[in-house]
Amino acid sequence: MNLLLAEDDAILADALLAQLQHAGFTVEHAPNGAVAEYLLLKQAWDLCILDLGLPMVDGLTVLQRVRVKKPALPVLVLTAQDDLQSRVAGLNAGADDYLTKPFDFPELEARLRALLRRSQSGGGAAAGGGAGNGQPDSVSMGALVFERGARRASIDGNPLELSPREWMLLDLLLSQREKVVTKEDVASAWSGERAEAGGNNAIEVYIHRLRRKLEGSGLSIRTVRGLGYLLEVARAPA
């Protein structure tokens, strides 16, 4: 399990390196944003722990740039910024999880392993998809083609880049496309760990991001007030 630790606090970085290696991770340390961006783009990683307050290039900028090239890389943001605005900004930039300092290492390790499970499952059982759950391997809706087995999605033949959580959310909406998907359904698809997922605010952020990515597909995600979300073919203007 190759993990990049992007952290500028040398004392914390040394402690985390020792703990992560003891937990079975192969870890490389990036002391600033420029090094983190270079390593993330040039090497293959299973996970990334990314501090937002990095020198040279801040963590949010690194995350936004890396997401363009590696949309599926699981990234856990680790930061002292614990206000709602910072959490939402991190999720909007593409973070898959968010942990504030100070923290306990067992919680960090549990979150990392949860991200690994989601990434390795490819949105299978957790997202309610896949042949094992009675869902077709390939789904076409509007201009969207969603291939569960190959973990590939496209709009009019153009690849659709999705983070692990976006993939699971779209898989859930497609598998329940004639039914309303509640926020509880989404929390369950994200391993039922509502606190880890960031609660309702995080779900709303991911719905907003997925809506933008589905532009041009002929599909829309409709908010059913008080109930949840419904994926449907967008109606042509009258």
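The record above closes out task 2.4. Task 2.5 opens with a second protein, given below.
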Amino acid sequence: MIRGPLGSGKTTTSCQKIFDLMTEQSPNPEGVRPSRWVAVRNTAGDLAGTTIKDWLEMFGDLGRFVKGGADPACHYLHFMLDDNTTVKAEMIFLPLDREDAVRKLRGYQVTGFWLNEVKELNKAVVDIADSRHGRYPTTIQGGVECDWHGMIGDYNSPDEDEWIYHLAEEIRPDNWTFHHQPGAVYWDDGAKQWVINPDCENYDNLPENYYENLIKGKAHDWIKVNVANEYGFSIDGKPVHPLYVDSMHCQPCEPVDGHIIQFGLDFGLTPAATLGQKVNGQWRIFREVVTEDMAADEFAPMLKDVLEEYRALGFKVASGFGDPAGGSGNQSTKKTPFQILNAAGVPCVQAGTNDVEIRRKSLSQHFTRSTMAHEPGIIIDPGCTILRKGLAGKFCYRRMKIAGDERYHDVPDKNYWSHVCESLEYLMVGAGEGRQLLSTPAQRARKPRVIKSL
């Protein structure tokens, strides 16, 4: 597997490697070197527009290409080598955007696979492919055993919660090899700008000033992933908080003595909480509590245990601020989430408003604000991985499927990342960060609620 930046030549390298394996396959008694390969891409459009095009530009004149119809497109290669042996190979191009194509994959008998843009493929597809290589040629089919079989893949840096990241960085199976190309650029913290990496690959084969032009107008984190070849966060929509920059706002932080710990809450069946302090004008968010498929009566003791950890260290913990919708009772118990948490020893009150604009701005204003010490107005500890990914774009307005028009839904997706982000919004509103956003002078002049320390 080759992980590299845009323009690094990883696709060309994958093609060349497969071609070399075609020519290195041992010949059968008739002097023919047989092999069969499958190039996989997640959609038919991507397959036709990039994968097939790239392959044929390199090797199209060495055989006959048949466009896909009822069967997948295929390039039948047939050419002679200097030793008078003949290469007879197939490169089948298989899109996996249809359920029947995935089923067909189970019946393939091939030498190997080329997984183009492998991070876009479902892990289940890759697992099936891994069970189908090494089945051709055989002494019965092809007249010789295959010398090499396996899978070759290429991809841009993935998000840290994608399967290919976990496989490459955590599981590290001993029969997989992961190659990491140098980034095309690196961040010069002194100059506060991206600089071309002199060690980047394939630079001389690209258009003049390719990377210099590519990074212009791009977000910092987009460059980090796609050009600097660093792991990052994938975004599939319009971020709710586009001003959050992980490389700037993600900084190690721990609770500071002498400052009250405050926390925000979001309810539902995926309750979440964020804990932080405001220290010298800077919000320091150092802990997240994220759940999935959990009721309030299960969440309450979990959160209480977390708060007790900090109390045991001598910190004072204020009443939490939660989603005002948590004042509604459950149809079966008639108890509200606030009642359940307070009864469990987690004092909390309503944040005061659920106005979406005020809630969003009460948080987002801190992403562009600096303290007197010229530090970001808010920092988030690296351990708050779900919150960081949500703010980086997982908490987003989903793109609408309208041909030729980039439009987004008016309401953000409710997903695994949204709840912890909204809990931080409720913390900001409850702590008084949204007062200046209220509509009337009287509302803005009203003193914030006194925070009760525990």
